Amino acid sequence: MRRMSDQPAFRDSAPVEAAAVGASLDPTPATENGSPRRSYYAGRTLERARTIEDLRRMAHRRLPAFAVEYLEGGAEEEATLQRNLAALAGYRLLPRALVDASHRDQSISLFGRSTPLPFAIAPTGLNGVFWKDADVLLARAAARAGVPFIQSTMSNDRMEDVAAVPNLRHWWQLYVFGPKEIRDSLIARAERAQCEALVLTVDAQFYGDREWEQRRFAHPGRLTIGSVLDAALHPRWALTTLSGGMPSFANAIDWVPKDHRGFFESAFWIRANMDHALDWAEVARLRGLWPRKFLIKGVLDPRDMERAADIGADGVILSNHGGRQLDWTVSGLDMLPEARRRVGDRLTVLVDGGFRRGTDVLKALALGADAVLLGRATLYGLAAAGQEGAERAIDILREEIDRDLGLLGAPSVKAMSPDFLTR
Ligand SMILES: Cc1cc2nc3c(=O)[nH]c(=O)nc-3n(C[C@H](O)[C@H](O)[C@H](O)COP(=O)(O)O)c2cc1C
User: Which of the pair, 4 or 39, is modelled with greater confidence?
Assistant: First the structure.
């Protein structure tokens, strides 16, 4: 775990207004800012994608509109979604001159294991709507890069199939729904599958309302005619995604009553059965059931991080769920300096939300994060071109971080500190 020996320069976590950071941060999927003479790459030649944003454009082109909404959308006004980008934009880098950077090192230590890159792949449910067997493909991309892959309870591939990917650091993300028997059984199954860590997500016991996504549906579970026609106009997506039929929630479906096992119906059943009474006492009980590393994902208040340490968690993930749950929250990055100050070295502190650039990752490390989670960044790659696309996303970030370390005069990510940042 990284030490933050000196006093972080940024005590103040006051929000930077989204409006102050310029139009280039507008994350609305349909917006195409800038001059028409200048455009991101949206073709099919993966090597021509130079940035995560290019992969995003390629994904938008391949996916039908309802899937783009699922991938991109945030809750309500999407103020939380915007905040994630604005918080990152609120920091500037302060490079050091004339530092020998002939060797650059972006490896970190994560739970006692050397990890070649300072990030992991975040849990995302329903990846099967982007590509067939998407979780296995993401897991392979993660294994190739040596970074952990966190598989969601709402994934469409069986836990055991992902666990079979060679050399994978496989973490299991748990959603708590239905009677206790379900969560206990999923934990036992993750233990049998040799998962390295259990990630308990606690910010989704109620489902955030992604209104733009809902507008693609005429009724719950029934797409509008326009959305169906639009999907029909995306045969490349249909061939690579639906060839085995509609995806199903492979790890949760057995718990869903037999008459609710249709695709949308099963999702609605799980949503309706999320445990609204989940509290610290139950989380402490789940901690006791799990013998390996235990992380809590979706905390933002530093008092909750202290509580997590008190119940014996090994780590927390500062996250607002990619802006998809409660609107108008702070971002994980906003709370990072205070979180680190409060928990010191008692917890591994990870953060997610809006990481699309090497410089974004370096900012989080400078503010005290042990590592970053990538949500949409790798999904854009996956949705653009399957496993190779996810690999491309990782390669782009690796190359950017390497170059940025050289430019910053900080040859190792381990040396990142608030000294490299200014507001
Ligand atoms: C399409 C999508 C599905 C998601 N599904 C889950 C999930 O099943 N479990 C979970 O803990 N978080 C889920 N998340 C949140 C991510 O784990 C992560 O917190 C978020 O994506 C980070 O923000 P970013 O996408 O801007 O990187 C999902 C995010 C997206 C974009």
Answer: 39
- In tens, the pLDDT along 182-208 reads 999 999 999 999 999 999 999 999 999
Going from the Cα of 293 to the center of ligand 1, the distance in angstroms, rounded, reads: 20
**Strand duo 222-223 + 348-352: pairing:** unpaired
> Ligand 1: does its nearest atom lie under 6 Å from the Cβ of 376?
yes
Report the CATH number at residue 324: 3.20.20.70
Closest CA to 317 of 179, 192, 171, 211: 171
Tell me, yes or no, whether 263 lies in a domain. no
CA angle 209, 338, 323 (to 5 degrees): 15
Domain range for 281 is 47-210+272-416
Atom of ligand 1 minimally distant from the CA of 72: 31
Does the residue 246 lie in any domain? no
Closest ligand 1 atom number to CA of residue 374: 27
Domain assignment of residue 387, yes or no: yes
Query: Binning pLDDT at 50, 70 and 90, where does residue 134 land?
Result: very high
Residue 124 Cα to ligand 1 midpoint, Å, equals 5
